[in-house]
């Protein structure tokens, strides 16, 4: 189904309405961040059979605001070896990119705002989805530069790990959206939402079926791959390896404090809201009401769609929290292998299969049963190709034998690498021994005489 681009309704708002939309979107993201922090702490507490925040405000709703104000008034520490300019601008880059990505997400249809008819969306362009991907890719620079500019080992390792992780899962996320482009025929977010209106009638071999037009149901492999990649791209558990406390102290933001740390924290939660909003727009019908609410004639009119959009985003945020409270953190090599050897190949096979099916459906040379048979053959061939690829990848795995430790405390022989002490006792530093030797007087043997 190819939709005609109809973006004439954008770019005609007066300046005061554009400014009002910017302020409202900024306030929405900040409030959603404060709510998401409380929401996460409350849901995880419920999973662990404890009350969670319940002191500040009703149900502890003001706990996130109190923590934010406390963080803002903490001492701002600048490391001595840090690159001060880059150290300052790194969290600003991440925050600006996180907020900018939400500018093309539609909240609802065209409504009347103080007598001016305007869509509930800041702006839209023919390649709006690519703008969101570009903003999330630019946000990686803030993380990498923040780790590099800290002048410390663990932030540098966390920044490098973040760059590899976010770039890897950015590829899988981008490929999962290609299927939406194939089906909708557009990259405009507002047109993608319009393509999911109502129910879609599908003709399979002469058999007509009324299926929901949500791309999350029609393109369920892309939906699952997108959300998995979104969790990895936003550094959320169980994929929070750049911030692994047990390995890297705090990751790329170890040396940050006060407002700079708050900006990184804000950017992470805004990115969660952004990928959830984009997932809602691409796969869950956007601001359109779900069934059976959609049976009501006024469900998709006026300001009600803002409520449906917010509810869908909150449900996706619940899945983020659910994963954090359920799954353990992956090992880094397992995580990278899963992204490059599972998600990306599965995505490519699915895209090729979908393209073949769409080409078969749109072909005039085949009848209804012929189209159905060719589509089934394409799906079977794709599954077979996937199983063969998995089998070959497992077959090519090489087993590395761990060399035995030398009695002298070295791996690989007497001239190999030193073996860490198995009793976890850290040996004294050679520099400390040198200082002690300098402080102690050297005995000449004349004292006793």
UniProtKB/TrEMBL annotation:
Catalytic activity entry: a quinone + NADH + 5 H(+)(in) = a quinol + NAD(+) + 4 H(+)(out)
Keyword Zinc: no
Keyword hit for Transmembrane: yes
InterPro entries hit by this protein: NADH_UbQ_OxRdtase_su1/FPO, NADH_UbQ_OxRdtase_su1_CS
Localization, UniProt: Cell membrane; Membrane
Name of protein: NADH-quinone oxidoreductase subunit H
Pfam families: NADHdh (PF00146)
Keywords, comma-separated and alphabetical: Cell membrane, Membrane, NAD, Quinone, Translocase, Transmembrane, Transmembrane helix, Ubiquinone
Assembly information from the UniProt record: NDH-1 is composed of 14 different subunits. Subunits NuoA, H, J, K, L, M, N constitute the membrane sector of the complex.
EC number of the protein: 7.1.1.-
Classification lineage: Bacteria, Bacillati, Actinomycetota, Actinomycetes, Micromonosporales
């Amino acid at each position: 189904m190819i939709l005609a681009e109809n973006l004439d309704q954008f770019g005609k708002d007066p300046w005061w309405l554009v400014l009002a939309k910017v302020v409202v979107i900024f306030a929405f993201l900040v409030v959603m961040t404060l709510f998401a922090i409380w929401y996460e702490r409350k849901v995880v507490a419920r999973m662990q059979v404890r009350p969670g925040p319940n002191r500040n405000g009703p149900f502890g709703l003001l706990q996130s605001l109190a923590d934010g104000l406390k963080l803002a008034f903490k001492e701002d520490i600048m490391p001595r070896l840090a690159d001060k300019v880059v150290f300052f601008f790194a969290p600003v880059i991440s925050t600006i990119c996180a907020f900018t990505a939400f500018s093309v997400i539609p909240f609802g249809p065209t409504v009347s705002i103080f007598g001016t008819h305007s869509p509930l969306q800041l702006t839209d362009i023919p390649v709006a989805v690519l703008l969101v991907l570009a903003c999330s890719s630019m946000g990686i620079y803030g993380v990498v530069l923040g780790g590099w500019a800290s002048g410390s080992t663990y932030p540098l390792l966390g920044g490098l790990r973040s760059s590899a992780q976010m770039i890897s899962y950015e590829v899988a996320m981008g490929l999962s959206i290609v299927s939406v482009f194939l089906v909708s025929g557009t990259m405009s977010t507002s047109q993608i939402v319009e393509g999911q209106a109502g129910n879609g009638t599908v003709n399979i071999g002469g058999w007509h079926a009324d299926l929901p037009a949500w791309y999350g149901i029609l393109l369920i492999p892309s939906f699952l791959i997108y959300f998995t990649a979104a969790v990895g791209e936003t550094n959320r558990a169980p994929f929070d390896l750049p911030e692994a406390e047990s390995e890297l102290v705090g990751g790329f933001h170890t040396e940050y404090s006060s407002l700079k740390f708050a900006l990184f924290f804000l950017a992470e939660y805004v990115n969660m809201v952004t990928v959830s909003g984009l997932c809602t727009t691409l796969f869950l019908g956007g601001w359109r009401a779900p069934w059976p609410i959609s049976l009501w004639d006024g469900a998709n009119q006026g300001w009600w769609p803002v409520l449906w959009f917010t509810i869908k985003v909150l449900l996706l945020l619940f899945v983020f929290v659910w994963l954090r409270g359920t799954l353990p953190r992956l090992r880094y090599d397992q995580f990278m292998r899963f992204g490059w050897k599972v998600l990306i190949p599965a995505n490519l096979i699915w895209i090729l299969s979908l393209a073949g099916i769409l080409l078969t459906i749109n072909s005039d040379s085949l009848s209804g049963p012929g189209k159905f048979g060719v589509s089934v053959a394409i799906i079977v061939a794709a599954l077979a190709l996937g199983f063969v690829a998995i089998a070959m990848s497992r077959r090519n795995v090489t087993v590395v034998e761990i060399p035995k430790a030398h009695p002298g405390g070295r791996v690989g022989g007497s001239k190999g690498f030193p073996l860490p002490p198995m009793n976890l006792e850290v040996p004294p530093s050679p520099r400390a021994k040198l200082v002690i030797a300098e402080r102690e007087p050297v005995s000449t043997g004349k004292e006793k005489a």
